[in-house]
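Hypothesis: this fold can be encoded by more than one sequence.
Test: take the structure tokens below, design a sequence, compare later.
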């Protein structure tokens, strides 16, 4: 098991919904911001279809506010929402263009993506939004580096990231997050209303379980707590 490269200064995390980052990568983000790296978030939707019994018009602003608080807990101040419809995101040229625009604007060396595989594990299907956003974002990394694919973005200089790191069931690289557990827990606790709607167990108990699952020790990697990624080499 290899260490995720850390000789970079700028990162971009792209996910479908508020809460996605906190379920998987918040501890790693905190490690990196503590190293002085600048991380930005791009969320394709505001998660407005994510709370049963609460109308989207109320849920969207609530989950946006929760995400901003969660980002701040791990040292991230820059959060952008693209306003695609939660639950109905398609892997489209429009989405690739919008994500390529963000990549050109923010110029990340490292792009972090959420699981875009069909499953999380045998018998556990991944959601349509996660699949669409992750795959479109991986393509958008290449689009951002090509001046001819989306010529309407010509006002933004092309940009080539160095890596894409994807959370999920395939793990090739990892980072030690032993010192970031408290911050990651604070980050997921920011989604208290969303977590409360998921079941009857107390929100702090649910939050601790999420962090423990996301930061479990990884075989072959020398860390008490770690976050794993599938690493894609883009350049360098």
């Amino acid at each position: 098991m290899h260490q995720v490269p850390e000789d970079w200064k700028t990162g971009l995390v792209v996910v479908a919904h508020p809460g996605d980052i906190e379920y998987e990568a918040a501890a790693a983000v905190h490690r990196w911001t503590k190293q002085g790296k600048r991380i930005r978030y791009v969320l394709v939707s505001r998660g407005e279809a994510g709370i049963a019994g609460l109308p989207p018009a109320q849920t969207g602003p609530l989950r946006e506010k929760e995400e901003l608080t969660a980002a701040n807990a791990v040292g991230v101040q820059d959060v952008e929402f693209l306003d695609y419809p939660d639950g109905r995101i398609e892997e489209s040229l429009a989405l690739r263009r919008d994500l390529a625009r963000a990549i050109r604007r923010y110029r990340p060396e490292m792009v972090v993506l959420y699981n875009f595989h069909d499953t999380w594990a045998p018998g556990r299907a991944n959601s349509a939004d996660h699949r669409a956003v992750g795959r479109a974002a991986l393509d958008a990394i290449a689009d951002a580096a090509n001046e001819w694919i989306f010529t309407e973005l010509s006002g933004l200089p092309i940009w080539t990231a160095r890596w894409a790191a994807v959370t999920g069931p395939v793990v090739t690289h990892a980072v030690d997050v032993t010192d970031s557990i408290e911050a990651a827990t604070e980050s997921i606790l920011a989604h208290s209303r969303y977590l409360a709607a998921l079941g009857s167990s107390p929100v702090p108990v649910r939050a601790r379980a999420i962090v423990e699952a996301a930061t479990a020790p990884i075989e072959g990697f020398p860390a008490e707590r770690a976050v794993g990624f599938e690493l894609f080499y883009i350049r360098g």
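DSSP finds eight helices and ten strands in the chain. Residues 56-73 form the longest helix (18 residues).
Hypothesis status: open.
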